[in-house]
């Protein structure tokens, strides 16, 4: 079925020089080619002239990745020809399955794949979701082939699997459903959710690297909390992170109105609700990339999900009925490090998520005995350092998901105000620290105390910087006296 469509300005395939060159070579070689996938989907506009997908019209002309379906089983050879004729780099992906890639120096990528079953119709029937089962044929430049009502689903923002088989053919598509829901601000329709639940165990056969991409992308959008709830309801999170299964054992208690699993999941929704009111400097930090395509925000959302995974292993109920979880933060960090190794996270991702799990109690602990001292707050800022923005996000999300009778009224209000003060004070701390100059350097301390380089010198420097920040030491003479006295107290023996 062909349907007439309108492409956004600058987004028609024939306006793309690469497409025109590929089509010229295809005609010369009598090869039938079609453009499929995101380039077609994201370029189409609806009748009211607004982009159907999430992608802004101004962004679409810059999209340089194109997928070509080649009828008749000649994709691999045709890609080799294109690489030679268009001065690109040939990347053989899978000759047996007739797939190859051509990469250009400007970053443009052309993927070529033989049509499954030989024809474009059978190929589209094996695609993952209806919004991706659209093909553009140069013979009908203002139409697309739409056999599964993908255009209707684009307009209604619905993610619908072409068939149940889509998840059998590639179990990763279980996660891709959520990624596309995020990218297109769409909803996964009920039947597709049912198939996800039935076939979610297939994710166990998928390489961790492929899972990581889809998962972090799903956690990157404005609807991350909603999608996290769906990931939990469909059993996806417990397949990827079996450590969460044990969290279902831990029941509500005086502080937690929810069971541990539900508490952990809803923290992402709580964080999403808090985000609009957070300072701009936190948003800037959250937007920074840890690794290619993975922001600090998406990693922080995953840290929210995992922050209490150490609780089942430390859970005890006293004779008085009090629930305790002693050192669950430490155990949780150890478990997260093992998850990182299993999932093959990059070092920056592993470091941030593990650190947030380990430190998630620290902001609240500062206020357990009333307002903290200036020294305690200063030490918190110094120890947490660049991760303060993300740790505060986890702290607020955790508080929002904790609404038991034991944390209400004045106790809750005081903790909320304390966390706000702690958050806003970090910028003041940074401004003051940046303006202060070191009173002594490491070599100064080594000469003063006749020491060799080593950890003691670092500890003395850190203590001196803290005293300087608190204005307990204001000049070089006081700094030398401070260092001598501290060394005599702690290290001279």
Beta-strand percentage range:
5-15%
Report how far apart the termini are: 87 Å
- Beta-strand segment tally: 16
Gross morphology is elongated
Major sheet: order of its strands? 1-10-9-3-5-8-7-6
Major sheet characteristics: 8 strands, mixed
Residue share in helix: 40-55%
What can you see in these coordinates?
This protein has 493 residues and is α+β, with helices and mostly antiparallel strands. The protein folds into four domains: 2-156, Beta Polymerase, domain 2 (2-Layer Sandwich), CATH 3.30.460.10; 157-240, Orthogonal Bundle (Hydrophobic Seed Protein), CATH 1.10.110; 241-435, no CATH class; 442-490, no CATH class. The chain is 51% helix and 11% strand. It has an eight-stranded mixed sheet. Strands 2-4 form a two-stranded antiparallel sheet. Strand 13 (289-291) and strand 14 (294-295) form a beta hairpin. Helix 7 (173-183) runs parallel beside helix 9 (208-218) and helix 14 packs across helix 16 (347-359). The radius of gyration is 28 Å and the shape is elongated.
Quick synopsis:
The chain has 493 residues and is of the alpha+beta class. The chain has helices spanning 17-29, 38-43, 75-85, 120-125, 150-156, 165-169, 173-183, 190-199, 208-218, 224-233, 236-240, 260-274, 280-287, 296-306, 328-343, 347-359, 362-365, 374-384, 388-400, 409-435, 442-449, 455-469, 476-490, and strands at 2-4, 6-7, 33-36, 44-45, 65-70, 89-94, 99-103, 109-114, 134-136, 143-146, 158-159, 187-188, 289-291, 294-295, 315-317, 323-325.
């Amino acid at each position: 079925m062909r349907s007439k469509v309108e492409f956004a300005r600058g987004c028609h395939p024939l306006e793309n020089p690469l497409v025109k060159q590929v089509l010229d070579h295809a005609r010369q070689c009598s090869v039938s080619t079609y453009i499929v996938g995101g380039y077609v989907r994201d370029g189409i506009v609806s009748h009211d002239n607004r982009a159907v997908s999430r992608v802004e019209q101004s962004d679409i002309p810059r999209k340089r990745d194109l997928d070509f379906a080649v009828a008749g089983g000649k994709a691999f050879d045709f890609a080799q020809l294109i690489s030679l004729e268009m001065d690109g780099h040939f990347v053989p992906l899978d000759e047996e399955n007739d797939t190859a890639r051509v990469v250009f120096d400007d970053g443009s990528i052309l993927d070529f794949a033989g049509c499954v079953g030989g024809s474009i119709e059978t190929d589209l029937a094996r695609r993952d979701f209806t919004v991706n089962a659209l093909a553009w044929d140069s013979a009908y430049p203002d139409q697309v082939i739409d056999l599964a009502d993908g255009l209707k689903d684009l307009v209604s923002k619905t993610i619908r699997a072409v068939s149940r088989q889509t998840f059998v053919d590639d179990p990763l598509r279980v996660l891709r459903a959520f990624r596309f829901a995020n990218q297109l601000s769409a909803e996964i329709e009920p039947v597709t959710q049912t198939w996800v639940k039935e076939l979610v165990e297939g994710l166990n056969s998928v390489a961790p690297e492929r899972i990581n991409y889809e998962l972090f992308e799903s956690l990157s959008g404005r609807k991350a909390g909603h999608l996290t709830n769906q990931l939990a309801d469909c059993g996806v999170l417990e397949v990827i992170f079996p450590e969460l299964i044990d969290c279902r054992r831990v029941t509500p208690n005086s502080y937690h109105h929810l069971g541990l699993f539900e508490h952990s999941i809803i923290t992402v929704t709580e964080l999403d609700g808090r985000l609009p009111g957070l300072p701009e400097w936190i948003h800037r930090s959250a937007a920074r990339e840890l690794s290619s395509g993975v922001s600090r925000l998406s990693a922080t959302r995953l840290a929210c999900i995992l922050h209490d995974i150490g609780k089942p292993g430390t859970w005890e109920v006293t004779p008085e009925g009090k629930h305790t979880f002693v050192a669950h933060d430490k155990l949780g960090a150890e478990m997260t490090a093992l998850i990182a190794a299993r999932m093959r996270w990059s070092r920056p991702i592993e470091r941030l998520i593990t650190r947030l799990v380990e430190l998630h109690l620290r902001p609240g602990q500062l206020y357990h005995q009333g307002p903290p001292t200036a020294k305690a707050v200063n030490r918190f800022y110094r120890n947490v350092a660049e991760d303060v923005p993300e740790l505060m996000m986890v702290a607020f999300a955790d508080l929002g998901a904790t609404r038991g009778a034991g944390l209400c009224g004045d106790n809750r209000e005081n903790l909320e105000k304390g966390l706000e003060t702690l958050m806003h004070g970090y910028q003041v701390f940074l401004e003051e620290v940046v303006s202060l100059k070191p009173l002594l350097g490491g070599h100064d301390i080594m000469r003063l105390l006749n020491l060799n380089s080593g950890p003691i010198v670092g500890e003395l420097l850190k203590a001196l910087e803290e005293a300087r920040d608190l204005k307990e030491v204001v000049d070089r003479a006081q700094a030398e006296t401070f260092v001598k006295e501290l060394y005599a107290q702690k290290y001279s023996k």
